[in-house]
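Quick entry, no commentary yet.
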Amino acid sequence: MTAAIAAARQGAQVTILERNDRIGKKILATGNGKCNLSNLDFQTEYYRSEDPERVGTIIKADAVRQAQLFFEQIGLMIKSRNGYLYPECEQASAVLDVLRHELTHLNVRVVCDEEVVTVKKRAGDGFALETKSGRKYIFDRVILSCGTSAGLKKGTKTDLPKSVASIYGLDYVKQVPALVQLRCEEDFCKALAGVRCQAGVTLRVGNDTYREDGELQLTDYGISGIPVFQLSRFASYGLLREQKLPVEIDFLPSLKEKEWEEFLRARRQTLDYKSMEDFLIGMVHKKIAGVLLKQCGIRPAETAGCVNDSQYAKLSRLMKHFPMTVTGTNPIENSQVLAGGIKLTEVSENMELIKCKGLYLTGELLDADGRCGGYNLQWAWSTGITAGIAAGNRRALF
């Protein structure tokens, strides 16, 4: 939609071929229905790619301001909440509505229920497209903005970036779930299900170590929440090479190791009369306390003064280094985005495919995925606007 608007503003006649019965439905699920448009703390380092230096040449430093202006110009009020940009009304539907209204205003033709199955370069100039319904279209320029299967029902789409890469002989990075929950093998997961807490999560993949802090969600199958989402793309690729991955949880991320050890020592001296169940009140959630005590071989009713040094040492370590084992991710339909895609070196700075002039690639088709917080939508807006301007400047159909 942003590509179409940008191209139409250049004077191009524009048609959107949409496989769904309505355009832009995926926007409605973003930001828990509030649509986190972008982030004022924008840094290209927050994107992951096999060609990270190319990210900065495609998405410029003023990308957030450009996106703000784009949406303000089509009538959307935007507000910042701790740097996270949302529509003032906090309704994703408002973002979709202003985009749809602008398409109408610019006389962009939108054809829904029209799934493109082939895009062929013509002998002379332009492209021939054929859809699943058997209809054929001829355009001078084509922008592919078809996204991926992330967040869609199982079987909704095939691996579109891989298909495009195969057709045009492009370098491609295998796509895996990102911003997704992680599944763990421990049998105590069910006992921790439903707990939310501030924690640090450290993932080890081979010789690399990654840590993220934030609100952790413990589930009956493993771990979830923002810090887990941030780590999940590394886990996904690690799982391709290794069967299992170790992860450690720090249940007291605000305390350094020595601070925690001193605190526990003082608490043990002053509260030695309490049962261990009561001893841990206020430190961690009761469900976590129960699992920790069981792991240390400590009875909940046992008084703190009766617990031996080795048990305290184990409790101290587990509180800051609680081990779990990642065995997989939730499936693609549960992921917010996919990592991987067509390598960025295959497109120019205006998103045109180097090996096929007049064909542009945008968004999730490309090997760039961002952190939580509006970065992936910003990538969509930026690549769409850039491709739209470039294609539209040729006064062409697409």
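second:
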Amino acid sequence: MFRKNHLVKINLPGGIIAAGDLYTIVEAAARARVSECCFGARQQLYCKVADTYSEAFFGELEQAGIFFESDGDQHPNIISSYVTEAVFGRSAWVSEGLYKDILGGFDFRPRLKVNLVESSQSLIPFFTGHLNFISSAINNHWHLFIRRPGTNDLYAWKAGIYSPDIPRITKSIEEYFMGAAAASGGAWGDQLYAAIQSLFPEEPVPPPLDLPPFTVPYYEGFNRYGNKSWLGIYRREELFPLDFLKAVCLICLQTKIGQLYTTPWKSLLVKGIEDQDLPLWEFALGRHRINVRHASGELNWQMEDFCPEGLRLKRYLVRQFDQEDIRTEGLTFSIKTRRGSGLSGSIIIRKQEGFRPGQLKLLDRYEIQHTPGFDPHSKEYIVFRKDLEKENLFPYLVSLCKEFYRLQNEKAALPAAAGGLSAPVSTSSERQLYRCRHCLTCYDEQYGDPDNGIAAGASFASIASTYTCGVCGAAGTDYIPIEKSPATVVPL
């Protein structure tokens, strides 16, 4: 008799779950004969439950007041950078309490993807949602970048968003998109703004968004912060044994750690570990044979949720990078095997499908894409190579890695010296940057735009009337100045 498995998704708003709630879920899943579960790219929890035990499992979740969806994703999880607070830097004004207040204001379950992200961190992606709220330089106010559903069209909201208004403006925008009057074409963003902003008090316009240089922090293992430690747990196969998760919850309850955190890299993070409790965690990791010492080159890859094919390809490529000792610091890789994947990355390996002439078998082919300038925040992609077999991917990926570091060297402008590169220096001279308000591509006067025939040093004011964005085609008048910064030379 055919045995059906249900894919059960449990949203963890903001990537946060109380240790007691996770214990309840784990206990119910164990009674449903589930042996392992995983965390998703939107900080949610997944497990597969056989049809025989599903009714009892669903009943336990409902009785505990835990929202879930079976074999569907009508309500995507709200993701946030809550996990980064204190352990990957500290914001000037975004606090754990503020995250909780905003998340607590959602008295409905959004159907659009909502990202709530602090601007100075780089663990949580900025633009993978439909509504991307990013903290601004003004206390309690956020930038909003809207990605129109089903597209990569990005619109920058013209006003700041006050923190308590985030749930309400989310609902208003969602109702607009779900309604028949939703605008299409090039003017959709301005029409949406005109329809929605009048419903809210006038707020100050924050300074232009200035995102930090991108790097994925090492999010695994034991790490000190303040007088405590945090523990990051990454699983190569993305699967967490339920027995281990149960042990994690019991230690948290025993040592008064109230909540756990998930990341879009499908890892689990525990904060607030006291020194005297470290042996408990070491014992649990050892007993369940959980490794927390993976190479950093394995931690900057993203796959779709529950995608064995993507995991196999990742293992294959990571092994080749490791064998050839190739540096990938500063890059992120994503593997997409399905249409509509919301993954972001500097370099994308996308599966193609097609028939080879004379053969009946459907053969796997892959396309390599990258973002302009290898910017992981961009949603624009440049096709680098098409129709590649798996065995031919690695050399082209290495070529892109070399190109990335060549561009890094150009930006750093390190002068050559006898015997090697000179020591890092800095200068007080300033340069002006301009950013496209649609796709966030920057024009740097120091480098110009050689691809468009603009020489280095050309002021933006002199070209703005005729300039067009090389990525999205927007007019130069759609570029906005961003804060001047010192032109510094940094070490590689």
